[in-house]
TrEMBL record:
The gene is Ttf1. GO terms for cellular component: nucleolus. This is TTF1 factor. Residues 124-172, 173-255 form the Myb-like domain. GO terms for biological process: termination of RNA polymerase I transcription. Residues 124-161 form the HTH myb-type domain. Pfam families: Myb_DNA-bind_6. It comes from Hemiprocne comata. GO terms for molecular function: chromatin binding.
Amino acid sequence: TDFDTARQELEEFIPHVKNISDSSIRKMAGRDLTRFKEFKKQGVTVKFGRFSQKENDQIRKNVEDFLSVTGIDSAEKLLFTSRYPEDKEAINRLKAEHLFCERLSEGIPRPWRLIYYRARKMFDPNNYKGRYTKEEKEKLKKYHALHGNDWKKIAEIMSRSNLSVAMKYSEIKSAVNYGPWSKEETQKLMHAVEEVIRKRLGMEESNSLSSSGKSNRDLSIDLEKLCQKLPWTEIEAKVGTRYWRQCKQKWTTILTNKMTKGQQLYRGTKGLQAKINLIKRLYEMKVEDANEVNWEELSDIIGDVPRAYVQAKFYKLKVSCVPFWQKKTFSEIIDYLFEEKLPEFEEML
């Protein structure tokens, strides 16, 4: 099937397919389209959102069956093959021979990618590690002195993810300023963001810009580029006095002010209505994990704002309203907000 036909056929099952990248559409056409058509013949619709207990059980069965057929001795080796470099080649060969993609998704009417992510979450022994203790932070500093930025090696030693140890170290090492942002810091942040976006677009040849007489500010960048994931540890290094999370929060504030022309969108009755709408929409999505939420789609609840702004408002909402939220799953937090706080907010409004 050619690309345009595949996209049209996928749209029947995934209405938001127009927002998906071309490379993802090609993968879905290969892994999912035939499956979706089979499910349609059986009268089964493609599902999104929260995985049911039945689906979780099916994933467990599919993984166990695959381990049994191939002789791979653990789900971790199957789903986190890169952690076992000495076995990697043999495992990947077994995956190809025994049709890992088809077997993992068997009997589950969802996109393969979501099934794979769910399986990795269920079977990752490094999951749910919680906050870093003082001892862990000291170990992290020691391991970094020994291994530098080899985050993969450090992650293996500490039984944490690569991203987790890299981000945590960036927080520890920064000469952090916790006060209000100065004009100089804000300018550094904006220049740093512009630099990484230029690099991403392959447009950082400043010589060609200056030779053509163009200003550095003449670059037109669409909203998606400004809001998408940026290399925050790189930006942190350029700013120098703030750690990556502060840089990300400040950039979100700058973007929000630009996009809303400084209007207060989350105050008073507007703020209450936004909280009510946010809780209702999240509850309707029935997702099990915050990573499964399409935060872009929720932006219109508050107004023309970046996705990070909505995520920040949700974080404040759960921290201020949900007791012992750290010990609750994402779906339990949403259920609590819907059942306990939503009626209060509606009465206040």
